[in-house]
Amino acid sequence: MNLKRFDRFLPLAIIILMTVVYLCEVLILRLAELRQTEFILLLIVNTIVVVVLLFRTHKLNARNIDSIRALNESAENSLNATLDTMPIGVLRYSDKDYTPEWFNPFVDIIFANDEEKLEANHIKEIVQDIDDKGTQYLSVNSKKYAIKVDQKKNLIYFIDATSEVVAKSVTSESRPVIGIISVDNYDDATDLISDSSRTVINNFIATNIDGISSKYNVYISRYNASRYYIYTNYLTLKKIMGDKFEFVNVFREEARSKNFSLTLSIGLSYGLENFAKIGKTALDNLELALVRGGDQVVIRENINTARPVYFGGNSASHIQKSRTRARAIATALRTIVLESENVFVMGHKYPDMDALGAAVATKIFANMNGKEAFIVYDEKQLLPDVTRAIAKLNESKDGFAHIIRMDTAYKLKRDNSLLIMVDHSKTSQTMDYNFYKKFDKVVVIDHHRRDDDYPENALLSYIESGASSASELVVEVLQYQNDQVQKMSKTEASIALAGISVDTQNFSKGTTTRTFETASYLRSQGADNTLIKKLLATDFDKYKKINEIVLGADFYEHFAIGLGQYRKMYDNVTIAKAADTLLNMAGVDASFTIVNHENGYVAISARSSGDFNVQRIMEKLGGGGHFNNAAAQVYEKTPTEVKDDLIEILKNIEADTKSE
Ligand SMILES: Nc1ncnc2c1ncn2[C@@H]1O[C@H](COP(=O)(O)O[C@H]2[C@@H](O)[C@H](n3cnc4c(N)ncnc43)O[C@@H]2COP(=O)(O)O)[C@@H](O)[C@H]1O
Ligand SMILES: [Mn+2]
């Protein structure tokens, strides 16, 4: 800065300096008494020195400016050259309408065959879609570009990131996969048969497993006769998923042709690290596949937020429940009951006869082990048949049937009390969520396929989706209590049998030999058909409402869809009974009833006669249930809108099935 100022005043400084020099010379000459001519000569010499110095200074300045100019020019040229040749696209867009105002040649190269991507609407999309980190990827032809947007300067940078994206997908595809294959019903199929027959079954399984291993080049290791471990990578898993796990269907069909009641259930998981956790998630997934009925595959990535992906499960439950398990559960449950101060039994919201039947049998189990037990109910959630059954139980001789309202239950709950949840396993479906939260000790007994929303740390879960009803499960456990005394009253046995009867539609659906054995046991305990008929009777008003829904039905191919009347409200049982009725119509494989529910949502009940999975359809509408008995609750829509959604789902499912 100072130098510059000095530069500007340099000519003046020279003149002043030379004038001072000249005055000094004059003074010296005066003192030396020289003449006029010497003064003039000295003046001329000094003037020449000044002129020469001024000229040199001017020249020096001129040369400086030229070299700066030259330097600037060359810098500008090389910047332009870099912009022109660097492998980064730079584009400036108008801040008014996003039209491109300028771009470098690399942008030209990028969009050579895709020029419409340079139009204002695309540029606008790029600028607006940019995520929080300010980066996004754009595919142009076969390349991937990372995009950075400088919104202040209206600039977009396109950086070739093809190799980075490829590297990422290579990492993703090489993620390790761990899986467990379980052969369903192996124990039953190989029990009580000759060694040579068992060898035939073992060979059949081994041949199939070898076939899977060589077809997909995966490593499969035998753990025991009915369990195998798979190790592979995500790329191979993708291929198998692309084939929709066809080998599970092949295995089932080949087994069927040989009269073996065998299917495969598989749990798989994958991730980048922590092999122990991947293995544990795979085991959890296998358990989920089993409780969903077996003959299916469940895959879930080893991260907390991952949702399970299902393959198969296209036929009703294939897993036969084993007597050995029922016996083991009886022992485990007895231990837990004995360690508790008292026991509370709670069904799902709006408990039906099966929930009550299971609760009654559970209460008896606890009493037989010397513990006081209570069945809890909420008077705001009572169905007519359950109301009748509770009234009947309350007629018992000792006057206190241990069926209590929620407010009493809260008072009787102790620190060491046990809660047994029956006929449901989703905490969101429990009758009183706050009451459930008060318990440290929880047991679950259910015949629904296990879902995500499961009680944390349940001490024991007895979930058998192959059972007809929760009542069947508990009564069976009750039979494994050692003493031979009369265990149930006539009313209790009748309620449990009514529960089985409701869930099996009067023994016409979902029954096994075990269902009939349980029914026969209940008859031996005094279950009475006349009482059951009275308990399950339909009120005339309800009957009219059931008919309204049935008469409002439309038929689509082999589906019947019943619709409630405009603005009329219905309850669960009415909808369920209407769906049951529609399923009895000729040519109907699955029925659906859609109405406004008294609780302010649109309710759907779905039933199928065997080969069609209505659970899958209801899951798509946010509900669930069983393979041939399911339901959903939809908020913020009208029944007609829900019907349209349902028809769309059915059309897609039909199209998928035809294309398979
Ligand atoms: N949101 C949901 N998620 C998962 N699962 C669900 C959901 N909503 C319902 N479910 C399950 O779906 C099935 C079917 O339910 P539904 O309401 O259509 O039918 C149940 C009862 O309403 C019905 N029922 C009760 N009493 C009688 C009777 N006297 N006659 C005829 N039908 C009757 O029977 C169904 C009982 O099913 P259960 O609880 O499985 O025993 C159901 O599983 C829901 O839990
Ligand atoms: Mn049930």
List the main descriptive attributes of the protein structure presented here.
5 domains, alpha/beta, transmembrane helix, six-stranded mixed sheet, binds the ligand Nc1ncnc2c1ncn2[C@@H]1O[C@H](COP(=O)(O)O[C@H]2[C@@H](O)[C@H](n3cnc4c(N)ncnc43)O[C@@H]2COP(=O)(O)O)[C@@H](O)[C@H]1O, metal-binding, disordered N terminus, 660 residues, cell membrane, transmembrane, Alpha-Beta Plaits, seven-stranded mixed sheet
**Name given to the CATH homologous superfamily of the largest domain:** inorganic pyrophosphatase (n-terminal core)
- Give the cofactors and ligands: the ligand Nc1ncnc2c1ncn2[C@@H]1O[C@H](COP(=O)(O)O[C@H]2[C@@H](O)[C@H](n3cnc4c(N)ncnc43)O[C@@H]2COP(=O)(O)O)[C@@H](O)[C@H]1O, manganese (II) ion
- Give the CA-based shape: elongated
Structural class: alpha/beta
Q: How much helix, percentage-wise, in residues?
A: 40-55%
How many β strands by DSSP?
Answer: 24
- Uncertain stretches of 5 or more adjacent residues: 1-6
CATH fold naming of the largest domain: inorganic pyrophosphatase (n-terminal core)
Work out the count of structural domains: 5
Largest sheet descriptor:
7 strands, mixed
CATH class category of the largest domain: Alpha Beta
Average pLDDT, rounded to a whole number, is: 86
The helix tally amounts to 24
β-strand amount? 15-25%
CATH architecture of the largest domain: Alpha-Beta Complex
Radius of gyration in whole Å, from Cα? 42 Å
**Termini separation:** 82 Å
